[in-house]
Each structure stands twice: as structure tokens, then as C-alpha cells.
Amino acid sequence: MQDRIERMKAEWAREYPELDSAVMATVGALLQTGRLLEKHWLGPFAARYSLQKGEFDVIATLRRAGAPYELTPTDLYEGLLMTSSAMTSRLDRLEEAGLIERRPDPADRRGVRVRLTARGLDLINEIVPQHVANELAALSGLDQRERSELDRLLAKLIQGLAKD
User: Fold this and answer.
1) In the chain, which residue ranges form alpha helices assigned H by DSSP?
2) Tens-place pLDDT, residues 115-148
3) At what angle do helices 53-64 and 84-96 cross, to 10 degrees?
4) Which of 84, 90, 94, 121 has the fewest CB atoms within 10 Å around its CB?
5) Cα separation of 137 and 143, whole Å?
6) For the whole model, what pTM was predicted?
């Protein structure tokens, strides 16, 4: 992979020597990192539990919310940076699997709350420690100091990109 990035940088430097084309390699490496994490680490991990990665994200978000492990669909799709229609299909699949339930919102007659079922809570409690171990394995090429520096740099990058 690194060879391809270096080759790409050299080709652009040859074709457009007046441009700082190295930035293209940086952005490409960031995008490739995300694709590799999804393809080889996060997606296969979720699949071991008959979940899609996005479904894992939903039940993990509900678990992270704390007891009673319940949020509104809006809280979920905004927290996971997705559309309401994509969230609806995930919730449908999770409800069908018995991992969540939709309940009327006592504070809003038109609203709904999404809550982990006992089965969903048992599942996420079982797999979160394994998920963390999987992520540690994915990042095993970096030591703790390097991961901390990467966290700092990514936070800075995200802050700069997120200016609305």
C-alpha cells in the first residue's frame, strides 16, 4: 500500500511539479485507512454476531447511553451521523432480531423511544470487550504514544473540517 502511495505522489509530482500533490497522498491514505478498517476489522467482527457494522453501532450507542439504554431515533441518527431513513431500516432489522424495541415516548405522544431489549443488552455486553480487543489489534502497528498523537492530530483535523 505504501508503495502505491509513494508511486502516486511521484506521478503527480512529475505531471504537476508546481503543485504540492503530497496532500493528495495524505487524504488518500486517510480514506484507505477507513476502508481497510471497515473491510478487514470492523465489518467482519460485527458479522461474527450476525450484525452489520451499522447495527452494531446502534446497539453500542444505546448501551453507551446508560440505563435504561434508550434514546430517540433522532438522537441515534444524529449521533451516528446518518439519515433518518437509513436509521429506520437499521432499527427495523434490530427489532426483528429482538435486540431493540420501540416504545411510545411518555414525554411526546407522537414520539418513539428505542430501547435495548434484555437480549440486546446481553449481546452488546458480551461483545464490547471483544470489540475493543479487535480495535487494539487493528491498531497494533502503533504504540500507545503514537496512538495518542494520532488521536490528537485527528481531533485537530476533524475540528478544522467540521467548521459549519
Assistant:
1) 2-15, 22-36, 43-47, 53-64, 73-79, 84-96, 118-138, 144-161
2) 999 999 999 999 999 999 999 999 999 999 999 9
3) 90
4) 84
5) 11
6) 0.83
Which residues is 151 bridged to in the sheet? none
How far apart (Å, rounded) are the C-alpha atoms in residues 88 and 100?
A: 12
Burial class (CB in 10 A: 0-12, 13-18, 19+), 59: buried
**70 beta partners:** 115
Question: How many Å apart are CA 37 and CA 74, to the nearest integer?
Answer: 27
Closest CA relative to residue 58, chosen from 106, 99, 16: 99
Phi/psi region, residue 89 (left: phi>0; alpha: psi -120 to 50; beta: rest), is alpha
Sign of the CA dihedral running 151, 154, 160, 163 = negative
Q: Distance from first CA to last CA of the chain, Å, rounded?
A: 33
Q: Contact, 113 vs 72, CB < 8 A?
A: yes
Per-domain residue ranges for the chain?
Answer: 2-26+50-161
